[in-house]
């Protein structure tokens, strides 16, 4: 173990909403037209987070994406308490080496936290049909249910 005192902080997003974002993101363009292949990326990440949490109890934090966007201060305070560092107002905005950075968004990159990402959900996506929604549900429902119970996500 390279960092025995280290922590892993993983964001877990609702798979339906993740799909809406990921299919338009440059990083995932290879899989954009293949629901199964694209959702395999979500599945991989979620399984890895669950496995890491089992392997390193207390060292892996799974944070619901929507929670950190909508309740940034409270979630960051909880993270700080868990990892034993002091909370700072600087933790309430994306930075790199203390400098503000733009968001990594498939829709619109902004400085700060773009709280509108939560309202850009699957249910509001006019370009996603019911068969796609059903396909994603069939691929992810069991794992998403497991993740919700393991990580306390609603």
How would you describe what is shown here?
- This protein is mostly helical and 154 residues long.
- The chain contains 5 helices and 4 strands.
- It has helices at 15-22, 35-55, 65-70, 72-83, 130-151, and strands at residues 8-12, 60-64, 95-96, 99-100.
- The strands form 2 sheets. It has a two-stranded parallel sheet with strand order 1-2. A two-stranded antiparallel sheet has the order 3-4.
- It starts with 7 loop residues before the first strand and ends with a helix.
- The model has no long low-confidence stretch (mean pLDDT 84).
Give a concise summary.
The chain is mainly alpha-helical and 154 residues long. The protein is 45% helix and 9% strand. The longest helix has 22 residues, at 130-151.
How would you describe this structure in keywords?
154 residues, mainly alpha, two-stranded antiparallel ribbon, 9% strand, 5 helices, two-stranded parallel ribbon, 45% helix
Write the layout of secondary structure elements.
Blueprint: E1 8-12, H1 15-22, H2 35-55, E2 60-64, H3 65-70, H4 72-83, E3 95-96, E4 99-100, H5 130-151
Parallel strand pairs: 1-2
Antiparallel strand pairs: 3-4
Helix pairs in contact: 1-2, 2-5
Broad structural category: mainly alpha
Overall morphology: globular
SSE arrangement, N to C: EHHEHHEEH
Number of strands: 4
The radius of gyration over CA amounts to 16 Å
Main beta sheet: strand number and arrangement?
Answer: 2 strands, parallel
Distance between the termini: 32 Å
DSSP helical segment count: 5
Q: Biggest sheet: strands side by side, in what order?
A: 1-2
Proportion in β-strands: 5-15%
